[in-house]
Amino acid sequence: MRFDKRTWQEAVRILRFGIVGLGGFVVDAAVLAVMVHGLGANPYVGRAVSVPIAIVFTFVCNRCWSFASLSQPTLGTAFASYVSTQGAGLLCNLAVYSAALLVIPSPFGALAIASATAMFVNYVGARFWAFRSYGSRSISER
After folding, report:
1. Nearest to 124 by CA among 88, 94, 96, 91
2. Minimal CA–CA distance to 72: which of 63, 60, 80?
3. Is a pLDDT exceeding 80 seen at residue 136?
4. Which residues have a Cβ under 8 Å from the Cβ of 139 and sit 6 or more positions away?
5. Residue 120 is inside which H or E element, if any?
6. CB 132 within 8 A of CB 63
7. C-alpha–C-alpha distance, residues 75 and 131, integer Å
8. Tens digit of pLDDT for each residue in 54-77?
9. 3 state SS of 95
10. Average pLDDT of the chain, as a whole number
């Protein structure tokens, strides 16, 4: 099976988005650990600090790397759209996690299913809402 240029570029974006998401998870976990274990904050306060930092991190990385080949909306418009898609992804994650726990006895299994589902929602939102193209440029043109 041969991929055309546009399919290949989209596959690269998806891979980059996944790598950025993993980096965002690490940033989120590291800030949470510092807040809880280093500063003695409770886990909810820790998450209130770690989530926004992780969202800003993933926004910058996705804008500059994952979706860099697209002609994007302004920084403010893209950021507002990105935050809304992250919120939708979080709600999706929580809903799928709660439903999966009814069927799957392992919270880690439920988390895996919820995270995969939310990643799909977040990618679609990021690609077609936050970083929607206003005329594509090839990766080599960046």
Report:
1. 88
2. 63
3. no
4. 9, 12, 68, 69
5. helix 107-125
6. no
7. 10
8. 899 999 999 999 988 887 778 998
9. helix
10. 84
